[in-house]
Design goal:
By secondary structure, this protein is α+β, with helices and mostly antiparallel strands. A hairpin with a 2-residue loop joins strand 9 and strand 10.
């Protein structure tokens, strides 16, 4: 995501073409939408989470290199946005609570998982790889593992078994390849993804062409965050 400065000429054109006041927030001109960050700045060439109506819930939007909002299509990195430009998965708009909001930890955890999946597939797209599909059984594995990490931060489970011993109880019995990434302490999906992509072993899992699906777990215990990715191929 780039933050660009609105030139004086562009600002005049926007004002002439729109009934909206140039004072921050969503702006409409020439039949399209863009987002005014204030001070003549606007997002361009990537994604941005925006709480556009002040309800302390953010949606994620993709802006073209020239700053216009992309709507009703597939983004260059392979994700779907609806007619309003919001990122959707299986027709459901993805949302997350604004930090410090009162919408509950369940929404926050779900949004962090969704954002982490988006970031994983963004990296795979950049590497020319097929996206990983979300797997509900793997999600249950990863969620269980995220809880276990609060007791023992290791690829070995608290009961002494290997992490992969959870696959069969969750109904996962046929596969050719499996993998796991774990992390602790990062405050956001973006932060943990950055950590993993700068670690050779974790990066290898994320970009492994053998994998076709992923499960993501996230928990907060005693103020400490725990993150898990479980892979299947």
């Amino acid at each position: 995501m780039k933050i660009r400065k609105l030139t004086a000429a562009a600002a005049i054109l926007a004002l002439l073409a729109s009934n909206a006041v140039y004072a921050g927030g969503w702006q409409s001109s020439r039949g399209g939408w863009w987002y005014d960050l204030g001070g003549g700045n606007y997002p361009a060439g990537g994604w941005l989470w925006i709480d556009g109506n002040g309800d302390r819930i953010e949606e994620c939007y993709y802006f073209k290199p020239d700053g216009w909002l992309l709507t009703g299509t597939t983004t260059p990195d392979g994700f779907t946005v609806d007619g309003n430009g919001a990122w959707t998965v299986n027709g459901v708009v993805q949302r997350r609570a604004v930090s410090g909001g009162s919408n509950g930890s369940a929404l926050s955890a779900a949004s962090e998982r969704a954002e982490l999946l988006r970031l994983v597939n963004q990296e795979r797209s950049r590497a020319g790889l097929q996206p990983l599909s979300d797997n509900s059984a793997l999600d249950r594995v990863a969620e269980q593992r995220a809880q276990e990490l609060g007791t023992l931060f290791s690829h070995t489970r608290p009961n002494g078994q290997e992490w992969s011993s959870l696959y069969a109880p969750m109904g996962i019995t046929e596969y050719h390849a499996v993998g796991e990434n774990i992390a602790s302490g990062q405050k956001s999906a973006e932060s943990v993804m950055d950590s993993w992509m700068h670690s050779e072993g974790h990066r290898r899992n994320i970009l492994d062409p053998k994998y076709s699906s992923i499960g993501i777990g996230y928990s907060v215990q005693g103020g400490q965050s725990y993150w898990v990715q479980n892979f299947l191929g």
